[in-house]
Structure formats: C-alpha cells, structure tokens
Amino acid sequence: MLLDKDIREPLFEFLEERYGKVRILEEKTVGRSRADVVMVIPEKIVGIEIKSDADTYTRLERQVADYDLYFDANIVVVGSSHASHVAEHVPAHWGIVSVEQQEDHVDFYIVREMQDNPYAQLLRTIRVLWRPELAHIQEKYGLPMYKQKSKDFVRTIIVDRLPVEVVHKEISDALFERDYTAMLAEIQEFRKAQAAKRGKTVRKKRKKYRRKKRDA
After folding, report:
1. pTM for the full predicted model
2. Where is this region: Disordered (predicted)?
3. Which of 12, 94, 152, 157 could lock onto 90 through a cystine, CB 3.0 to 4.6 A?
4. Tell me, what's the pLDDT at 101?
C-alpha cells in the first residue's frame, strides 16, 4: 500500500522529467481546501491532489470545487486501488495519474492528460502572489502603486488593466523567481512601514483632539 509520504518525492521527479521547467510548492490554502502540491510551469499554475491507497474520496468534491477556482489546470494522482474509478469523482478536464509500487521504486502512468480548466478565476489565481510581487508587476507595467490600498484592490487593478496572457506569465515568473528568505524580509519591512504610518496618523489625531479639548 502506497501512502502519501511514499508518493511525493518520486512524484516531484516525475513532474520534472515530464514538464521540464517546474517549481513545486506544497500545502497551499485554496478556498476551504489545502492543495497538496502546486506545480508552476511557464504561464500556467497546476493544482495537484494526491489520493494514496489509504485515502478516501470524502473531501474530494469540495477539493475539486476549490481547485477549479484557483488553478489553470488540475491533476489527481492516485494509488492503484483508485485508478479504475477516480474518473467518476473528478471533472473531464482533470488529469489523472496512477502510481504503482514496483519492487524497489514507484512508477507513474498517465491515465488522462490534464486540460485547461474552464472554471479558473484569474482574480483567485493571482492570490498566490505576495504584496512585493504584486508591486513588481505594477512597477513593470507602469500601473499606479496604490500603496495605501488593500491587496485585493491591487489584484483587481492588475487583472483589469493587463492582458490575461500577460498576467498568467507574470504569476508564473514571480513564483519561479520567489526567494522566500528575501521575500519574507521585504514583507516584514513593508509591514513595519505601514505600522509606522498608522502610528503617526493616530498621534496626529490624538494631538488634534487634545488641542480642540483645550480650546473648548
């Protein structure tokens, strides 16, 4: 019986061999679900759900709905015990990959190729990007920075003002280039700057209030 932990590392090697330039991200929240694997390939983000021989389909319906909102394409990777009937549980555009235990290794078989997801929503897909990555896109294409606006506001501006294919490419490029250490440091600096601005605003309001109270 193959478990999730037995599948992951060989799966990553299989994906790299099959798709070439890839970046693998694990355990990403999408809606009410957590994507087991997110595969970044040029101009496309692929959600991958793993169902080992020990797993059931209990949450799969909800997972399919969430994955279909966020990813350009989706794949379900299943243990051999699921291979003959998993197609009944996922839409026709989902790819299906079966994994089987051999003597000293595991083999992967393409049961069905993934197709473009007709339900993907770009405003949700772009949520995988962090604030500095959004700011880079804004600067690159000469969009207003809107530093005081929310991330949702900025995402909407990017999606509304840039061609769809450009946004797809920029999302993939940002994820390929993401340096977690540098990015987290940049996010911390951004948050400190925002907190300082809020503190300054609060102090001004308090000073103004005390002046009014004194003059009353």
Report:
1. 0.81
2. 196-216
3. 94
4. 84
Tokens representing 134 are 């959004």
Q: From CA 137, how far away is CA 83, in angstroms rounded?
A: 41
Q: What pLDDT, on the 0 to 100 scale, is given for residue 34?
A: 92
Identify the pLDDT of residue 157: 96
Whole-angstrom distance, CA of residue 20 vs CA of residue 128: 22
Low-confidence ranges of the chain (pLDDT < 50): none
Structure tokens at 125: 């897909």
Q: Are 62 and 32 in contact (CB under 8 A)?
A: yes
CA atoms within 13 A on the CB side of 89: 20
The length of the chain is 216
Render the burial of 136-170: b for 16+ CB within 10 Å, e for the rest: bbbeeeebeeeeeeeeeebbebbeeebeeeebbeb
Q: Angle at CA 181, nearest 5°, toward 177 and 183? A: 60
Distance CA 29, CA 207 (A): 43
